[in-house]
C-alpha cells in the first residue's frame, strides 16, 4: 500500500496555489509545509485529508518527463468539481469528465495538466 507520493515543481508558489484550489473539491487540503532549511533540498507542501498528507509537491524543477497522479473520489460530481476547479486554477484540459469504458464500465475520470505538465486525474469507479 502506498503511504504517500510526491512530485517536483518548477514554481513552488504557483503549484501550491494550483493544488490548493484544484484539490479542494475532492476534500484535500494543504496540511503541512516544510521549508528547504529542514528538507535540505527545497520547500515542500503536503496535501491530503486530515490528519496526514499523502500527496507532496517540492521545489527544485519539474519531473521530466511529467508524471501521472490519479486521485480516487467517491462520486462523479467530485470528478466534475475537480475538473472545474483545476481549470479555474490555471490547469490545461487533458480529458474532460466522462466515462472511460475501455478501462472498465464505471470508470469516470477527468484529466488536467498542472502548471508543469503533470497529468493530474480525479477518478470515480462507482456507477452514478
Automatic annotation (TrEMBL):
Location of the VOC domain: 1-125
A Pfam family reported for this protein in Swiss-Prot or TrEMBL: Glyoxalase
CDD domains: VOC_like
InterPro entries, sorted: Glyas_Bleomycin-R_OHBP_Dase, Glyas_Fos-R_dOase_dom, VOC_core
Coiled-coil region: none
Annotated PROSITE patterns: VOC (PS51819)
Domain of life: Bacteria
Name of protein: VOC family protein
Native species: Variovorax robiniae
Amino acid at each position: 500500500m502506498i503511504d504517500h507520493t510526491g512530485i517536483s515543481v518548477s514554481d513552488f508558489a504557483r503549484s501550491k496555489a494550483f493544488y490548493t484550489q484544484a484539490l479542494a473539491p475532492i476534500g484535500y487540503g494543504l496540511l503541512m509545509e516544510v521549508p528547504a532549511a529542514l528538507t535540505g533540498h527545497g520547500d515542500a507542501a503536503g496535501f491530503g485529508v486530515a490528519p496526514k498528507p499523502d500527496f507532496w509537491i517540492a521545489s527544485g524543477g519539474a519531473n521530466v518527463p511529467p508524471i501521472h497522479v490519479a486521485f480516487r473520489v467517491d462520486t462523479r460530481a467530485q470528478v466534475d468539481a475537480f475538473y472545474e476547479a483545476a481549470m479555474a486554477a490555471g490547469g490545461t484540459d487533458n480529458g474532460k469528465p466522462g466515462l472511460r469504458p475501455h478501462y472498465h464500465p464505471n470508470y469516470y475520470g477527468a484529466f488536467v495538466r498542472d502548471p508543469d505538465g503533470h497529468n493530474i486525474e480525479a477518478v470515480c469507479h462507482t456507477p452514478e
